[in-house]
Each structure stands twice: as C-alpha cells, then as structure tokens.
Amino acid sequence: MDRWLDRLLAGILTALWLVLAALPMIFLDRLAALFAPVYRLLARRDRQRLESNVHRIYGLPPQSHFARMFSRQVFREQLTIALETMRLVRFPSRARIIGFDELEGRVAAAEAAGRGHIMVTAHLGSWELCAYYAQKAAKRPLHVLAKPAKRRFLTKFLDKLRARMQVHVLWTDRKTLVRDMLGALKKGESLGFVMDQKPEGRQGPRVPFLGIPTEFVTGPAAMTIRSGCPVIAIFCVREGCGQYRLLSKTLLGADHGETDETAITALFADAITDAIRAYPEQWTWSYKRWRET
C-alpha cells in the first residue's frame, strides 16, 4: 500500500513541478502572495516555532505588531522562493544572478591548491540554487549531505531534482558516509554542508549563533580538520522577481592548520549569522533550532 501511495504522491509532485515551471515568474510571486496567509494559518506548529525563535533572538513577544508583520513576511518569502526555485531548477538560465564571478574566483583560488574544498551554507534563501551555482563555479562534482525525508517518494524527488542540477547527494544514513566524503575531497571535488539545524543525538560544539550559545553539528569542522581543505561560505538570497544574489566568503585557506573543532565551528556560525542578519526574512525560522529550557 505504501509503495502505491508513494508512486501516486511522486506523480502528483512531479506534475506540480512541471506546471510551476511553465508559469511566468511574475505569476509565481502573485501566487505566493495569495497563498502565504493560508499557509501561515494552516502551519500552526511552524508558526509557533517561528514566533518562539523570533522572541528568543529579538525579544519580540508574538503578539507585537512587528513580530506579526515579520511572521507574515517570512512565510511569504519562503513560499515565493520555493515556487521560484521549482521553476529555476528546470530553467536555470532564466534566473538573474549577481555575485557569480566573485564566487567563481574564490573557488578557483581554493582549487589552485590541487585538492577539493568544503562549502558551508544554511537554510537561507534558496539553498537548492546555492548548490547549483556552487557546482557550476567549481566545474566539477559537488557532493552535498542531506537527511532522507520521512516519505520515500520525497527523498527520490529531491534526489532527482538535485541530479538535474548536477549535484550528488550523500544521504546521511549511508554506512560509508565518512569514507565517501573524504574520497570526494581527495579527488579534488567539492563537499557541501547545510549546517544550521540542531544536531541530533549527542551534543555538538556550543558556539555563539545569532547572539546566543547554540549547539552545532560536528561534521563540517571535523571534516575540515581531517582533510585540511579550504572552506568557503556561500548563500543564495532573493533580491527580486527571479533575481538572486550569491554571497560568498573564504573562511579558511588551503593548509590552514586549524585543529580546534569549536573554534572552526564558531567561524562557520559567524558567517551564517552575518548572512541571516542581512536577510532575516529568508531564514527558516520555523526550525526547532534551540533546546527548550
């Protein structure tokens, strides 16, 4: 039964993707404006987490006028970016991109060392387009870590979507994950981490993030130490209808010699914090990011 349901849902999702890809970009913006209030109303748990996180970071009570305005803006921006990403994954040449030349220069400098490089990013703006342009700048395979979705059809759909962008997914449940990551870097390829979610299981390094001590996953820093590869922070943020800006910064050069996992994680967290503060409405505030106290 589950297999047939997965096939049905996969077919519906693929059909929806094809329909969205055929719509004019300006129509997607208006569609998001129309459905964002409904999305916000129905996604009660996401809205509550957003309000809790905004209160934690900015000290704004959920009932305040600014908090309500910000919540509406976040839901609309997230829906707009999701719809535009679905279209631009199919037709990437129709996107207007700012900052690609700068990213390409940073990647070229990292690759000059004759080894692979690590890219870190967050759930900010369009992280799917971020992966596409990171791969395009590197001109060689990009491997990104991702956790399988709860439904198999969604995992397969995302895998198909990313493969279309020439992005290879390393699912985190695979037994050979560490070996595969190191192998990619040794071949001179790119390895990407989306590292702003709360670590599962054991605690990770606790470093300042958006002004408060926050736990992070250990993987990016551990792989940085083990490989000695350069690290670039990259984000893809929306600036208008079909227009996106790539924000990039070299965090560590080749043969950096850094061995402190906490210090490296703090460096990465600072880069993510700066990007979120510049485009706060585009971060996924609805994550259960901090442990309840």
Description:
- The protein has ten helices and nine strands.
- By secondary structure, it is an alpha/beta fold.
- It is globular and about 50 Å long.
- It starts with a helix and ends in a 15-residue tail after the last helix.
Q: Report the sheet with the most strands, covering strand number, pairing sense and barrel closure.
A: 7 strands, mixed
Poorly predicted ranges (pLDDT <50, ≥5 residues)? none
- Rg computed from alpha carbons, rounded to a whole number of angstroms: 19 Å
Structural class: alpha/beta
Q: Beta-sheet strand percentage?
A: 15-25%
Number of domains: 2
Could you say which overall geometry the principal axes of the C-alpha atoms support? globular
Classify the helix fraction into a percent range: 40-55%
Overall residue-averaged pLDDT value: 90
Number of strands: 9
Major sheet: order of its strands? 1-9-8-2-5-3-4
Classify the oligomer.
single chain
Order of helices and strands: HHHHEHEHEHEHEEEHEEH
Number of helices: 10
Distance between the termini: 41 Å
